[in-house]
Amino acid sequence: MGAGLDVCAKKGRVLLVLIVFLATVSYLIGCGAGSGGSSQVSEKQQASRTAGSSEQSGESSGQASGERLGHPALGSADAPVVLIEYSDYQ
Amino acid sequence: MEPKLYKRYVKDGTLRIEWRDFPYRGQESVNAAVAARAAQAQGRFWEYHDLIYDNQSSGYSDENLTALARKAGLDAERFERDYENARYEPLVRADFQKGLNAGVNGTPTFFVNGKMLVGLQPVGVFENAIEDARREAEGG
After folding, report:
1. Which of B17, B40, B76, B92 has the least C-beta neighbours within 10 A?
2. Per residue in B101-119, pLDDT tens?
3. ∠ at Cα B51 (B49, B52), nearest 5°?
């Protein structure tokens, strides 16, 4: 009877150790994945920012619809002399 | 730009004159520049440009700029759409930034083949600069 209790207690300790071990492993894996995840998120955010800035450049090619206008000019594009005037309407 | 220079140098292919916006006197300056670019999109930049200068005293309210567009014979609906959406404002801002980078800090500022001339100048100054630039371009 005493030996039976002893075996039960041993089994209980082994079970407890197993549970603690599994919990620890699970926690560690969780942290690792978490940090990996947040790094991915961060990479994604970075990528998104990069994409955002290219989109902004793209908008400046939405400007490009404007840039297709070129600069207002008079005279031949092959003229040897180019006079550029910076001006304001005020 | 001086009509004399246009007649003497642009017509014979010696000179090309390019406009850059440098609206440094506030939002109305920017509005006028954006409106002129909307006119450019309809092939009437210079007509509109001249009208703006001729009507400087009236100011550059949205209403005045739109009225000038009608006067210039622009498609008013298209003009208003482009103007109100500030469609060409990025171009105007880009010119302004390029001007700053090139050392412009007031208007008018000219560059004749890269040589800077600041402020209104007698025609002779431009003629000399153009002749010098032409000689240099021809290798003389």
Report:
1. B76
2. 999 999 999 999 999 999 9
3. 65
Does residue B44 belong to the interface with chain A, where contact is any CB pair within 8 Å?
no
Residue at B99 is within a domain:
no
Q: Domains in chain B: how many in total?
A: 2
The H-or-E segment that residue B85 falls in is none
Domain of residue B81 covers 23-94
- In this prediction the pTM is 0.70
Same structural domain, B10 and B54:
no
Both B52 and B111 in one domain: the answer is no
Shortest CB distance from B107 goes to which of A60, A76, A88? A88
ipTM summary value: 0.95
Choose between A57 and B75: higher pLDDT. B75
Mean pLDDT in chain A? 57
Contacts of A38 (CB under 8 A, 6+ apart): none
Mutate to test the interface with A, among B37, B42, B91 (most CBs of A within 10 A): B91
Based on the fold, state whether residues B43 and B2 are members of the same structural domain.
no
Please tell me whether residues B13 and B33 are part of one structural domain: no
Gap between the Cα atoms of B37 and B83, Å rounded: 9
